[in-house]
């Protein structure tokens, strides 16, 4: 199928007098769909977000870390560059969102301590420090006694610590709430509907009601069958479900669910932690993310088990064990929530953002562990793709067409 450049399409619409306002349907109301819809609305587009449960998936589970350095791994230079660029966008993104929504966005910028539980775990820290030094990232090695001066609640038995200053966190649920308000305040609409791209005459003309595999027909709203949302451009931002929706159109977008189980604890005393604490605990990773309301988010498993949303006893046990080993007083905290989210993971760990190969359809999905972190850069890239503007730097590795077509399989 052919793809007209978005700019050509926009110019054609304006010249024909059909529309001076690009209509965009965004399928999926997770952090990526919401951030994209908001930036599109700010750019003057008329947006409709279609999702039966806005911000109810991976966004609801996410800890909200904006931590490009501590999550960096060897061989992922493109992801590190994009993550760093997006982390740099977060302060302005948060300030604009606060202004548009009227809600404060609590971007906590205290940085990360990466700690080791034992001497083998120290090797993990040493490897991370070497990686960050290779890419000229600021990282400081501290003896654990000095780490406890920064975070007195840390266990006295830790084997080592890295300080990574330039990292932050937000509460994704609050950000999603603010995005909903900001989109609405910019004239955007929400439709609580399971939707898929609507193909007509070899191009996508909007979003139409989809049938859940478990249902025999589309759920009626009142007595009427839900109607399509017509659009000049449709953005497919449906997380791990993107793969199946794209396959309907003959597109190959390999995104699989990668389960993450996450806990929320409420310690008896406020301010147990100030910084994000990431730890290697006898070869297993755990992270602790403090919120300004006193809660501590503890995550996360990484399970390649398909679309299984269950919370398991073993995962809760392991997360609690590791969290308490690093911060012993968390044993007194109330366990207020256990959640499982399904991250949208790709084979190369890079997201899938850009023209799909079918006219009228842009994809924005596959952000894996980095949805919150990469939301600002992704939203900028989506605006550029929809309106035919230059791509932001570092988003060029996200091209959905890098996986070829279904025919190549
Ligand atoms: N970014 C943290 C996680 O996905 O668990």
Automatic annotation (TrEMBL):
<feature type="domain" description="FAD dependent oxidoreductase">
    <location>
        <begin position="23"/>
        <end position="383"/>
    </location>
</feature>
<dbReference type="GO" id="GO:0009228">
    <property type="term" value="P:thiamine biosynthetic process"/>
</dbReference>
<keyword id="KW-0784">Thiamine biosynthesis</keyword>
<dbReference type="InterPro" id="IPR012727">
    <property type="entry name" value="Gly_oxidase_ThiO"/>
</dbReference>
<dbReference type="GO" id="GO:0005737">
    <property type="term" value="C:cytoplasm"/>
</dbReference>
<dbReference type="GO" id="GO:0043799">
    <property type="term" value="F:glycine oxidase activity"/>
</dbReference>
<dbReference type="InterPro" id="IPR036188">
    <property type="entry name" value="FAD/NAD-bd_sf"/>
</dbReference>
<dbReference type="Pfam" id="PF01266">
    <property type="entry name" value="DAO"/>
</dbReference>
<keyword id="KW-0560">Oxidoreductase</keyword>
<dbReference type="InterPro" id="IPR006076">
    <property type="entry name" value="FAD-dep_OxRdtase"/>
</dbReference>
<dbReference type="GO" id="GO:0009229">
    <property type="term" value="P:thiamine diphosphate biosynthetic process"/>
</dbReference>
<protein>
    <recommendedName>
        <fullName>glycine oxidase</fullName>
        <ecNumber>1.4.3.19</ecNumber>
    </recommendedName>
</protein>
<dbReference type="GO" id="GO:0050660">
    <property type="term" value="F:flavin adenine dinucleotide binding"/>
</dbReference>
<comment type="pathway">
    <text>Cofactor biosynthesis; thiamine diphosphate biosynthesis.</text>
</comment>
């Amino acid at each position: 199928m052919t793809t007209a450049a978005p700019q050509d399409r926009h110019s054609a619409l304006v010249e024909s007098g059909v529309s001076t306002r690009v209509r965009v349907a965004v399928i999926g109301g997770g952090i990526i769909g919401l951030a994209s819809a908001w930036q599109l609305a700010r750019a003057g587009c008329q947006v409709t977000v279609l999702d039966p449960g806005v911000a109810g998936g991976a966004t609801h589970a996410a800890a909200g870390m904006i931590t490009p350095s501590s999550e960096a791994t060897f061989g992922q230079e493109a992801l590190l560059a994009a993550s760093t660029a997006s982390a740099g966008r977060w302060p302005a993104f948060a300030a604009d969102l606060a202004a548009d929504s009227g809600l404060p966005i609590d971007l906590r910028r205290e940085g990360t301590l990466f700690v080791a539980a034992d001497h083998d775990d120290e090797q993990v820290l040493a490897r991370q420090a070497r990686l960050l030094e290779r890419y000229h990232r600021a990282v400081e090695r501290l003896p654990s006694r000095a780490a406890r001066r920064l975070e007195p609640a840390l266990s006295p038995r830790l084997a080592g610590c890295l300080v990574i200053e330039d990292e932050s966190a937000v509460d994704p649920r609050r950000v999603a709430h603010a995005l909903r308000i900001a989109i609405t305040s910019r004239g955007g609409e929400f439709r609580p509907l399971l939707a898929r791209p609507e193909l007509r005459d070899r191009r996508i003309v909007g979003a139409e009601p989809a049938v859940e595999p478990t249902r025999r027909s589309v759920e009626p709203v009142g007595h009427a069958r839900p109607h399509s949302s017509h659009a000049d451009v449709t953005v497919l931002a449906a997380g791990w479900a993107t793969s199946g929706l794209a396959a309907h159109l003959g597109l190959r977008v390999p995104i699989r669910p990668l389960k993450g189980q996450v806990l929320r604890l409420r310690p008896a005393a406020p301010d147990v932690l100030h910084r994000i604490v990431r730890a290697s605990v006898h070869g297993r990773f755990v992270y602790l993310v403090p919120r300004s309301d006193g809660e501590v988010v503890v995550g996360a498993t990484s399970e390649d088990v398909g679309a299984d949303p269950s919370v398991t006893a073993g995962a809760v046990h392991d997360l609690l064990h590791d969290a308490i080993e690093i911060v012993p007083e968390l044993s007194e905290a109330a366990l207020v929530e256990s959640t499982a989210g399904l991250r949208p993971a790709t084979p190369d760990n890079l997201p899938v953002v850009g023209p799909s190969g079918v006219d009228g359809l842009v994809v924005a999905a596959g952000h894996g562990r980095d949805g919150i972190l990469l939301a600002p850069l992704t939203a900028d890239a989506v605006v550029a793709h929809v309106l035919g503007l230059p791509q932001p730097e570092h988003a060029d590795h996200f091209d959905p067409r890098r996986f070829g077509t279904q025919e190549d399989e």
